[in-house]
């Protein structure tokens, strides 16, 4: 499957993004600016992760929207659109509608696309573009670039990514009938992305929630043979609550329950949650294969949705 090679190339792509970031600062948000970040599908989840992280870093008010749900009339200093293809209709229509009203930057994989032509500025990541329908490395590379711009040490992330592309999977995909991914703050977007990978690549029942909200209803699904996989910081008691249901619990930082990356990345614990996402991408591909599906040919999907 060519998605395997794309997943494995993420450490190199993240390093490339780290080199690129200082050369494109003029096209990315300045501290204090009010920023909207938009995308569709995977690209929206990356937008949500970046928005939460920029706010938490004290860099300014940052809102994420699916491109179709941008509130007309809302004023921002800058709008960032994330789109691998640059052809997604909701994104190009929004950029056109906002022309002249807000400074726009598109982060795209394809260097020559409708979105890059309409936006005021473009940050191009052709080295992270993909053949696959199911996005993996473009999404994480766009987020790595935005994180580098926020001051995160992306070289350290790439080292964690090296571990995640080689590490054994936390559990056998043939032994799981359902998965729920959890996150907190910026990792909610990563959890949503992990669940989407399972649905897209493997037609597998997967959900995602903020970890705190999970106990307000969704935990009723947890049962033996099902999986709960948490990204980043988790609330006190969550691991124990999940364990009491009989579901498998996967978390890179928990001792006592099933630990994932922390076990292999001794000396670099906690590992970055984006490395966990790589492991979840690989889990989704393994699920697809175990179900007799071709992860390169997902049902009902095309590389970009053009209406
Ligand atoms: C966005 C997207 C993908 C998804 C699917 C349809 O594309 O929703 O995330 O996997 O294949 O398109 P883009 O705007 O980032 O090109």
TrEMBL record:
What are the record keywords, sorted? Isomerase, Repeat
Q: Where is the SIS domain?
A: 24-164
Q: Which InterPro entries match?
A: GlmS/AgaS_SIS, GlmS/FrlB_SIS, SIS_dom, SIS_dom_sf
Transmembrane stretches, start-end: none
Q: Which GO terms describe its molecular function?
A: isomerase activity
The record, for PROSITE patterns, names:
SIS (PS51464)
* PANTHER family, sorted: GLUCOSAMINE--FRUCTOSE-6-PHOSPHATE AMINOTRANSFERASE, ISOMERIZING
Q: What is this protein called?
A: Sugar isomerase
Q: Which organism is it from?
A: Micromonospora cathayae
């Amino acid at each position: 499957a060519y998605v395997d090679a794309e997943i494995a190339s993420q450490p190199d792509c993240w390093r490339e993004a780290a080199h690129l970031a200082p050369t494109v600062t003029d096209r990315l948000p300045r501290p204090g600016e009010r920023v909207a970040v938009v995308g569709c599908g995977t690209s929206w989840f990356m937008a949500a992760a970046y928005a939460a992280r920029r706010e938490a870093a004290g860099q300014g008010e940052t809102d994420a929207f699916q491109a179709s749900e941008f509130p007309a009339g809302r004023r921002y200093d800058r709008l960032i659109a994330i789109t691998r293809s640059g052809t997604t209709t909701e994104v190009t229509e929004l950029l056109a509608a906002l022309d002249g009203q807000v400074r726009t930057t598109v982060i795209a994989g394809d260097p020559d696309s409708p979105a890059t032509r309409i936006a005021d500025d473009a940050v191009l990541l052709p080295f992270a573009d993909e053949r696959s329908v199911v996005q993996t490395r473009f999404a994480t590379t766009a987020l790595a670039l935005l994180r580098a711009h926020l001051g995160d040490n992306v070289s350290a992330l790439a080292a964690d990514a090296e571990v995640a592309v080689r590490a054994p999977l936390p559990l056998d995909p043939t032994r799981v009938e359902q998965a729920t991914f959890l996150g907190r703050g910026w990792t909610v977007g990563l959890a949503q992305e992990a669940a989407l990978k399972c649905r897209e690549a493997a037609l597998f029942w997967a959900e995602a929630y903020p970890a705190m909200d999970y106990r307000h209803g969704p935990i009723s699904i947890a049962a033996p043979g099902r999986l709960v996989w948490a990204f980043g910081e988790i609330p006190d008691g969550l691991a124990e609550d999940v364990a009491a249901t009989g579901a498998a619990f996967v978390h890179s930082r928990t001792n006592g329950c099933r630990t994932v990356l922390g076990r292999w990345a001794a000396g670099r614990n906690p590992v970055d949650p984006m490395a966990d996402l790589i492991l979840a991408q690989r889990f989704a591909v393994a699920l697809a294969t175990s179900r007799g599906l071709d992860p390169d040919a997902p049902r009902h999907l095309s590389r970009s949705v053009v209406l």
